[in-house]
Amino acid sequence: MKIERGDIELAGVCKSFDGVTNVVDGVNLKIEDGAYCCFIGPSGCGKTTILRMIAGHEDPSAGEIVIGGQNVVGLPPVERRTAMMFQSYALFPHLTVRDNIAFALRVRGMSKTERLKAADAMIEKVRLTKFADRLPSHLSGGQQQRVALARAAITGPKVLLLDEPLSALDEQLRVQMRQELRRMQRELGITFIHVTHTQLEAIALADLVVVMDNGRIKQAGPAREVYAQPLDRYVAEFMGGQNVLSGRVEKVNGATFTLVQPVQGAGIEVPLQARKISVGDSVDIAVRRDDVELMRPDAQLPPGRAAALSARVLAIEYQGAFVKVMLDAIPDDEFVAYVPEKTFFSDPLNVGDVVLATWVADRARALA
């Protein structure tokens, strides 16, 4: 059966290597045809192993990998309608841009006239027409990446696999190439599976973000959902942008509960959000850093605020559009406020100042 779609289902996929068990541990995931999916997690979490198993460079120890409705476990890469773009680009240094891109078609036995015609069409798509006769050594890093992308895409895959494709680029090029990857994915209309360890890269590109840890999926969903509504402490801290507070439930009242933080002792009001929470439970909550407002200790607390945590300013970093203010509100951990630039400089803080950290009550979120 020929694979005509790029939808992917991982069903109970496990992978163990000699001496290392459960590198991938019972992964279940569905990726829609034409989606842009990013796997993200720390080194050794299993994300690249999953990529290699989808490509056919590794076989799972257990489970099924289904592409376009067909279980492809045991099939060689060429029969899976997948193509892989490697981190190193792996371009042939002695071949021109045109010949690098056409190489895969040459291996498949396509005539020279046909493969060069196809290569020129792909060169135009990646906007490298005037560089077609150059060698890779005469291209910038971003241009080399576009050649690698075109070479992977020219075989007409249903799934394109990208292993940390932006890691070798500087920050400005990364931003440009993020836009290029998204444009190419939409134009080609195929499924992209992209492995990265960079949170901003994942949320900027992906329709589906998959956060992994120790071989398991911790959360999978749309980028905004994973960033703004983390399910547990691991995802909240790994994706960044969140402060995590721990405490004990003192009271449950209708649609909210009151959390008492052991160090501050202040009651923090948190929405229940359909969670089953009882008095006495230990609970973690997350508050986005850009939802935290800093006030002087003698300021009048506005109504509807969840809490007012007293803290001392530990460090201040200017970030352009906002100022990152680090506080000692949590012992041995980081509590951060992202203060809009204009707000901060209307009444600048200094290291050592005592402030009240506060936020609107419904902005806090209970974690699993």
Features:
OB fold (Dihydrolipoamide Acetyltransferase, E2P), Rossmann fold, 2 domains, 9 helices, 368 residues, alpha+beta, six-stranded mixed beta sheet, five-stranded antiparallel beta sheet, elongated
The CATH class designation of the largest domain is Alpha Beta
Q: What oligomeric state do these chains adopt?
A: single chain
CATH topology of the largest domain: Rossmann fold
Shape type: elongated
Total count of strands: 20
Integer count of domains: 2
CATH architectural group of the largest domain: 3-Layer(aba) Sandwich
Strand content: 35-45%
- Determine the structural class based on helices, strands and strand pairing: alpha+beta
Report the sheet with the most strands, covering strand number, pairing sense and barrel closure. Answer: 6 strands, mixed
Which radius of gyration do the C-alpha atoms yield? 25 Å
Summarize the helix and strand pattern as letters: EEEHEEEHHHEHEHEEHHEEEEEEEEHEE
The helix content, as a percent range, equals 10-25%
Low-confidence stretches: none
Tell me the span between the first and last alpha carbons.
43 Å
Mean pLDDT: 91
Number of helices, counting only DSSP H or I runs of 4 residues or more: 9
CATH homologous superfamily caption of the largest domain: P-loop containing nucleotide triphosphate hydrolases
Strand order of the largest sheet: 6-7-8-3-9-10
